[in-house]
Structure formats: C-alpha cells, structure tokens
UniProtKB/TrEMBL annotation:
SUPFAM superfamilies: Thioredoxin-like. The lineage of its organism: Bacteria, Pseudomonadati, Pseudomonadota, Alphaproteobacteria, Sphingomonadales. The keyword RNA-binding does not apply. This is Thiol:disulfide interchange protein. The chain crosses the membrane at residues 294-321, 342-361, 381-400, 421-446, 452-475, 495-511, 517-535, 547-565. Residues 1-26 form the signal peptide. One of its GO terms (biological process) is cell redox homeostasis. It holds the Pfam family Thioredoxin_7.
C-alpha cells in the first residue's frame, strides 16, 4: 500500500533514534519531562455512587505526550491501578489530540497540560469514613521534535468515603470541555481501490472547522497522507489512502475533530458511502455551533415566544402575574396609563431574560456546565427569593404599603411605570425554573447558535411572557372586558397574598432540600425577621410617621441570612427520591450498563425548584399504575437530580438539545432514545414498552 512498509520502517527508525539519547543518559538521574498527578473531583466520594478522577499530565516547555493511538511513531500510555476492594475504575478518556508531522511521520500528540479522565464507582457497602487510597503505576513517552524519552512513575491520592461533595468541580469541568463527545449514530466505511472512504452523520446546519479523522483502529489508513473531507447533505465524507487492514476489519473506531479541542467519538461499520460533496476543509471554526441559517433562527425564536406565552399559565409564574392583574385593574380605561405600564412591564421581562441569557452564555464560555435556571442552584438565590416573595405577600395582605403598589395619590403617575418594570423583572426571574412546552428545544438551540442569535432567542422568550399584557394594553376591545375599578380590588389584592405565601412556602422547601434542616430554619427565621420589620413599618405608616427606619434592620436581616446560609449540599440533602418507581440515581456508566444488557430504561431529570417537574412526578411518575407497568415490562428507571447543579447532568442535557429540566427519555432495547413531552400523563407512561 503506497510505501506503507517503507514508512513503517522509517517510523521504527525514528523511534529508535529518539530513544538513543535517552539510553545514553540512562545513568544520569533526571526528573520526568511530563509531570503527572492523580486528582479527584471529590475528596469524600459517596458509597454506591460514581465520581471522576484525572491523571493530569504537564509536559515541560518543548515536550509533548501522546494520544491513545500515537500515530506512526510513539508508544501508547500504560497505567496499572492499585485500589482497595469495592472500587471499580473505568476506561480512561483522552482529550481531543493535535497533529505533529516530523520528517513526514505523523504523530498524534498533546502540547501543554492535558488530563485523562476515568469514572470511579464505589461499592454501596463501603462504610462512611473508610480510607480509600488510589494508586497508579504508569509508563508513557515524552518527546521533543528531536528526542524521545520513555518515562514512568507511581503516584496516587488518598480519599475518604463520605458525602460525595464536589471539591474540584471547576478544574474537572475544564478538563471535560477538552473531551470528545460520542456520536449517536454509526458511521459507514468502504474501500474503493486504494482509498478508504468514511461517511459520518453530521447535521448540514452544524459548523465544522478544519476537520480531521483520527483513527483509533491501527493499520486501516495512511496516517501521514492528506485527508479529503467534504459534506454531502447530513454526511461528512472522509477520503484517505487505505492501509493493509482496511479491507478486512469489521469496525473502525476513531475521532472526528470538528474544531479546536472539539471532536466526536464514532464507530464505523462496513456500508455504502455517498459520493463526495462540497469540500469543507479550511472552514472558519465556530466552536461546534450551528450556522445561524434563517430557518433555524425563526424556528428557535418562534418556540421561545410561544414557550414564553405558555409560561403565563404555569404555577410558578401565576402568583407574580397577580401583581400585573392589579395594575391593569387599577388603570381601568386610561389608555395611556395602560400602554405605559405594559411597555414598562415588557421592558422589565425582556431585560431580565437577556441578562440571564448573557450570564448563562458567559458561564458556558468559561467552561462551566451551566444551564437554564442556573442561578436557582445557589441556595443564596433561593433564600433571597424567599425573603422577597414573603415581603410581597405581606404587602398584598395589607401589612404595609408601597406607593408603587398601593397606587395612592401623587406616586401613581410617577411610579406606575417603575412598579410595572420591576413586576416584569420579578416575573421573568421567578419564571426561570419553568421549562414549559416549546421552550426546551428553543433554549437548547440558544446554547449552540452564535451569541447574537442566542440573545435574540432569550429576548423572544421575554417578549412571549409579556405578550398577553401587551395585547390587552393595545387592543381596547379586549381590555373593555376587564372589570372596572372598584372596591373589589382591595379584596382581590388580599386574596392574591395567598398564592404568594404558597410560593414562599415552596421556596422554603427547596431551600431545605438544598441545604438541609439548618438552611431551611435559617430561611424561616429570616422570613420572620422580615415580617416583624415590615409590621413595624406598617404601624408607623398608620401613625403617620416615616416608614424608612424599619427598612435598615430588614436589610441587615437579609444580608445576615445570605451570609450564613450553607452553600454546600449536606450528605442527604438535595437527592432525588425514586418515589413509586424505585429509581436509581442517574449515571452514564449505569445507563450504558443497562443498555448493554438490552434492558429498557426510562431516564428523567428533575430539580426541586422545577414546578413542572414536581407536577409530573405527582400527577404521573409516582402513580401506582405506572410503577406496576414498569415492573411488568422490566423497565429500569434512572433519575438525575439537578437541584444543586451537576456538570455531568448539564452536559448530558446539552447533548440532547436541552438547557434545563425537565427531560424525559425512554430507551427501548437496542434503540435510540425517545424524547417524551415535557408534560406527562399516566397513559403516556403505561404505553412505553408495549
């Protein structure tokens, strides 16, 4: 095969020549050119659960390490583990490699720091407090452009069985951003003459930059030959000179590099490969994002607007909308006042949605696996909302007055628009945990399109949330059907304090799930402190005195509570409950294990602050009929809890086109996952597997 034997010989000669200087210096003590260390994502892994470890490799300046297939020269790494009984370590995952050609010999390498990741599973019988020493003996090759040195070393880390709290989340999130993602569909390959042709499924709407196929299977392609890469519809076609085993292997494993530090793991089986299409080598890198074609933009924008409109009927938003209902009723038939308030309300909604969207994109750009509603994964934000909603409920109940809400006298004209703006801002913020119909796909698209398009989608979500009030404001015939202002408004206002207090109760429950009893107690104490201060303010208002004095201790109570609330999850807090389905905690390793055994699997992702999730759990998932059906069909259930944020779950959601919960998936034996609607019914679930 076109000088294959000669190139093999040249590769061996190059490797031997590289080793000669190393042998010459073998008698001289030296430090490794690649510094290694074993790191763990948590110092206290939880029994019965999995966590991630990393072999961190730091080549000195001018040196490099090798991918699991080093190319035409080099030696693969080798690591042997020494771990206590009850610990299982999975296969190492390598980041997307680079290419280095020296004298026509192709090497697959890494410059700079890189990390090899592995999933570790602890047996459920390991007692808390048990010492868990992890040790590894490794051998690897360190090279410059002129010399190669075989290196080895023993290193490890000492852990203790405990709560599983993440201690090195940021570093591991960064490492994971360098890992290739698995391609969901099989590729196909065929040999035509002396050319190996590979067809890789890849959406036509997705961008790709300087693509290159790294083969894990040896002796199937010419490593140093130029690859021809083209696009034919939803296929990427790779053509490269074949090597000796290309015509006899039944599977080719490899990695398609689609951007800097971005790639897809794939497996190709023999099959028909379409004709080559338009060449794509040299296209501008776009971080794996979809091209912002007009159809994609319009579809995502339409979904965001429609999803935002439907949020108005979701339980998590309704209490806040009561404030806007009061504003409309107060304005009555005053055309200018109604339109002014509606526009101010819309501005508040859209600005908050844009702000949250910008923060989300910035976090993801920094390597954090954040998703929609990311801010509610912080207990301090839940506590702040608890105190704020408590204050609003007490205001609606008449305990104290705010000029912008009470609508009295000269403050109405001056503060009406301001009050509407902040009502809209609060509505948008509280709507965050809800991911209703049409929103999932739209927000998922917002994470992969260019930034300016993503911001348009976030703005569309806010516009959809405010749209019903805009329609009422600018269509007089509809507004004429609203009740006229009158004494009923005061009773209605007091009645609306009830859903607000229920919202505060729900937030207190979420805080307890996130931080345990101590955190929930602190939240209740803070809410009582705020209530006392506002009661004092109300009494001063009744006496005709200024009400600003109680605001100072109220602010101090708020700041004190925010400073004292726990921010880490206790061992038993924030864990999803299996309910009637007796679900296991989600893990990709466990999912693959069940699928490999041809067992049907139902996977769902939830969070305690997600009202839609909780409604589905109460109305469908935790019904006995569903549990009986799943047991009869042998359907295993995995549940992923995103209450406190989990980077692994965040990445899994992203791969399925979602930026938040809920997400419901059904895996039939040997089939692709079926994405279920975001609103579940008992009949829908009892139909699975039949």
């Amino acid at each position: 095969m076109r000088f294959s034997l000669m190139k093999t010989v040249l590769g061996l000669i190059a490797a031997i020549c590289c080793l000669v200087p190393a042998i010459a210096h073998a008698q001289m003590p030296r430090e490794n050119a690649i510094q290694t260390a074993l790191l763990a994502e948590t110092e206290t892994p939880a029994p019965g659960q999995s966590f991630t470890i990393a072999i961190r490799m730091r080549p000195d300046e001018g040196w490099h390490g090798y991918w699991l297939n080093p190319g035409e020269a080099g030696i693969p790494d080798s690591f042997e583990w020494d771990v206590p009984e009850g610990i299982t370590i999975g296969a190492l995952s390598y980041p997307v490699p680079e290419r280095l050609s020296i004298s026509g010999i192709m090497n697959y390498i890494y410059h700079g720091e890189y990390a090899l990741l592995a999933e570790v599973t602890l047996d459920g019988g390991i007692a808390l407090g048990t010492a868990l020493p992890l040790r590894v003996q490794g051998q690897w090759l360190a090279c410059t452009d002129e010399v190669c040195v075989p290196e080895s070393g023993a290193f490890g880390i000492d852990l203790v069985a405990g709560s599983g709290a993440i201690t090195e989340g940021a570093a591991f999130d960064e490492y994971r951003t360098r890992l290739p993602r698995p391609l969901g569909n099989e590729a196909a390959f065929e040999q035509v003459g002396e050319t190996l042709r590979i067809a890789i499924p890849f959406p036509q709407s997705a961008a790709i930059s300087a693509p290159y196929f790294f083969s894990r299977t040896d002796r199937v392609l010419d490593y140093s030959a130029e690859q021809s890469v083209s696009r034919n519809g939803d296929m990427v076609i790779v053509e490269v000179p074949a090597e000796q085993d290309a015509g006899v292997v039944t599977r080719i494993d490899g990695l398609l590099k689609i951007g800097e530090h971005d790639g897809l793991l794939l497996a190709a089986v023999p099959g028909n490969v379409p004709a080559a299409g338009a060449p794509i080598a040299g296209e501008r890198i776009n971080s794996g994002a979809m091209n912002a074609d007009i159809a994609t933009v319009l579809l995502a924008l339409g979904g965001a607007i429609l999803g935002g409109m439907l949020l108005n009927i979701m339980p998590c938003v309704f209490p806040i909308l009561s404030l806007k209902a009061l504003s409309l009723a107060k304005a009555g038939g005053e055309e200018s006042a109604v339109r002014r308030d509606a526009l101010a309300y819309t501005a508040g909604v859209v600005i908050v949605c844009l702000g949250l969207g910008a923060a989300l994109l910035a976090l993801r750009a920094s390597g954090v696996a954040a998703g929609w509603a990311f801010q509610l994964q912080d207990p301090r934000m839940i506590l702040f909302l608890l105190l704020l909603v408590t204050a609003i409920a007490l205001n609606l109940a008449g305990l104290f007055e705010l000029p912008s809400v009470s609508g009295g006298g000269r403050f109405a004209d001056r503060d009406g628009a301001t009050g509407s703006f902040f009502t809209g801002a609060l509505a948008a913020f509280v709507a965050t945990p809800c991911t209703g119909p049409f929103m999932g796909a739209a927000l998922g698209a917002a994470l992969v399109v260019p930034t300016i398009v993503a911001m348009a989608i976030f703005a569309g979500l806010g516009f959809g949330l405010a749209l019903p009030f805009l329609i009422l404001a600018f269509v007089p015939t509809l507004r004429a059907r609203l009740p006229r202002p009158g004494p009923w408004m005061e009773g209605f206002r007091h009645l609306m304090a009830v859903p607000m207090l229920l919202t505060a109760l729900a937030l207190g429950w979420v805080l307890g799930r996130q931080t345990g009893v101590n955190g929930m107690t602190l939240g209740i104490a803070g809410a009582l402190g705020i209530a006392l201060m506002l009661w004092w303010a109300g009494n001063r208002q009744i006496a005709g005195k200024r009400a600003w004095l109680p605001i100072i201790p109220a602010i101090l109570v708020t700041l004190g509570a925010l400073a004292l609330v726990p921010t880490s999850m206790p061992a038993q807090a924030g864990q999803a409950e299996g309910g009637a389905l007796d679900a296991e905690s989600f893990g990709e390793a466990r999912l693959e294990e069940l699928r490999a055994a041809d067992q049907p699997v139902f996977v769902y992702f939830t969070a305690d602050w997600c009202i839609t999730c909780k409604a589905n759990e109460a109305g469908a998932l935790n019904r006995q009929a569903v549990a009986d059906h799943f047991e009869a069909q042998g359907i295993a259930v995995l549940v992923g809890d995103w209450t406190n944020g989990d980077p692994a779950i965040g990445r899994f959601l992203e791969r399925h086109g979602r930026s938040g919960v809920p997400l419901y998936l059904y895996y039939a034996p040997g089939g692709e996952p079926e994405v279920l609607p975001q609103i579940l019914t008992v009949g829908m679930l009892t139909g699975l597997g039949t």
